[in-house]
Amino acid sequence: MTGLHVRHRRTVALESVDLDFGPGVHGLLGPNGAGKTSLIRVLATVAAPDGGRVELLGDDIRDHRRRAAVRRRLGYLPQEFGYYPGFTVREFVAYVAWLKEMPATETPAAVERAVARVGLADRIDAKVKTLSGGMIRRVGIAQAIVNEPDVLLLDEPTAGLDPEQRVEFRALLRELGARSTVIVSTHLVEDVAAACTEVTLVESGRVAYRGTPAALAELGEAADGVGDNPIERGYTAALRAHRGLEGAAR
Fold first, then answer.
1. Mean per-residue pLDDT, 7-29
2. How do the residues of the chain divide into helix, strand and coil, expressed in percent and rounded to 5?
3. Same domain, yes or no, for 106 and 138?
């Protein structure tokens, strides 16, 4: 993407953002309201940019004729995940597979595989409304990966997961990132450190930092940041440095 610009009424959500993502797991970090969700929504083709150019899987997503083809190769878990409570887990994930126009002959096995990967094989025929919040979040992850997407977009995917489930999810992310482009928006720095190959820090609609988690941790070792570990200190140091540059530019 080049020169990405997104506004919400009078508020600038993203301004002059230039980014590219290749295979691997990419973490999006930043304070609340920084623009992470706006970026994910544009990439998921559910929100249109107000300016700039965005190419996804080789197609300009502003071209409505290509958008449907792109969506078939996407997986998306929004921050606010909607579902049909009366559906079983199997029915709901199969419904999403149908929306993605997956071949009917491949869908049953794909659904079972996706549900098993998020640890819900024993609840596949339970109604979604009977599940806990953490389980429902895992159903959301299952529907996002049922089509083995080339690009997977996850907005706060570990919300509601317990510590053991988060560890298992990080392992799944690393597995998925071996063949796909995975972009994870989160406020949990430790998830980025454990699972991501690259981290992008967004602040006030602009890119404040981009590098590897190891480089961010090194910044934390060298700089005067706040946090309980090097990567948290690197995060706060990068934010402070960006705010200083923004202030000087004004």
1. 92
2. 45, 20, 35
3. yes
Which residue stretches of the chain are H helix? 36-43, 64-72, 89-99, 107-117, 133-145, 163-177, 189-195, 213-222, 230-249
Range of the domain at 107: 81-149
Do 189 and 248 lie in one domain? The reply is yes
Query: Is the C-alpha dihedral spanning 172, 56, 80, 145 positive or negative?
Result: negative
In a domain, 67, yes or no: no
Which of 128, 149, 170 is where one domain is finished? 149
What's the whole-model pTM score?
Answer: 0.92
pLDDT of residue 63: 74
How many Cβ atoms sit within 10 Å of the Cβ of residue 179?
A: 11
**Of 79-88, 94-103, 219-228, minimum mean pLDDT range:** 219-228
Cβ burial 96-125 (10 Å sphere, 16+ → b, else e): bbeebebeeeebeebbbebbebbbbeebbe
In sign, the C-alpha dihedral spanning 12, 20, 25, 66 is: positive
Least confident range from 61-75, 91-105, 154-168, 192-206: namely 61-75
Q: How is residue 74 written in tokens?
A: 């996407």
Q: How many CB atoms neighbour CB 11 within 10 A?
A: 10
Strand order in the sheet with 198-203: 74-77, 151-155, 181-185, 24-29, 198-203, 206-211
Closest CA to 234 of 245, 223, 242: 223
- Do 139 and 188 sit in the same domain of this protein? no
Q: How many domains does the chain have?
A: 2
Torsion of CA 112, 117, 120, 124, to 10 degrees: -10
